[in-house]
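Incident log, structure service

09:12 report received: a user says their structure output differs between two submissions of the same chain.
09:20 pulled the input from the user's history:
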Amino acid sequence: MENQFFLLSKIIWGLLSPSSLMIWLLILVSLLLWLNYIQAARRIITLMSLAGFSMLAYPVSDYLMYPLETRFALPEDLPDNVDGIIVLGGAEKLKLSMSWKQAEVGEAAERILKAAELSRRYPDVPVIYTGGSNLVQMQNLDTQGSVSQTLLTQAGIDKQRLIIETQARNTAENFFYIKPLLPKQQGNYILVTSAFHIPRSVGIARKLGIDVIPYPVDYRSSRPDERYWDFDLFDHLQVLEPAWHEWLGLTAYFVTGKTSAWLPKPKQSDIQTEQE
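09:34 re-ran on a clean worker, output below:
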């Protein structure tokens, strides 16, 4: 069942990602023109032009990303004691690392840097890193976790403190595979991942009964008062793709019962702590 969910999610993303949608619509317009449906082709290309110009000129993608990144605030006060630090994979570039025979890191590198910082604050707890290959045709990339281990140790974390899980292909599997590895099943764990990824991650953790303190990093959107017309299409698309992917993921995980809520929110106790 999990294999079917994984493959289906890849197919759907191939159809519905913003860049894919643009290509599919261009193909549709071309077919309509060849079939002499001129009016329909004009309407679609006009809508595409308006959407494309909006994406080029202004960071409209922030309207999708910002609500995800602000759903859970950065904790102002951390507890004196925790049972571990959970870090979700995504910072490492497995395919490039295997190709060039050295550990390569991507946009989400802050996950590793923040894990290293937190490991110094809590020197006696394990750092639990979870993440395998999410590629359909290359499932066996780095099954020993050498890339993530290299990156984490380079960041200053003692190798002996690492618990590395390499089977997970998506966020649901991240938590499914690490649950048996946790030192305390009813423990309290800091969860480090990208800010836009926190709501879905927290929802899955709650569904599986794993108590986590969300620690968002790797912010991608700008605050409302910092948005302006800049005509930077590439930068805007880099925000749009993960934001749209995350909203689709939240919906799919909720429909299939993998998360506690469609858009999880902080517990009331967390809100009270922040206000105090």
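09:41 both user submissions now match this output. Likely a transient worker issue. Closing.
09:42 reviewer note: Residues 2-66+233-247 form one domain. The radius of gyration is 21 Å.
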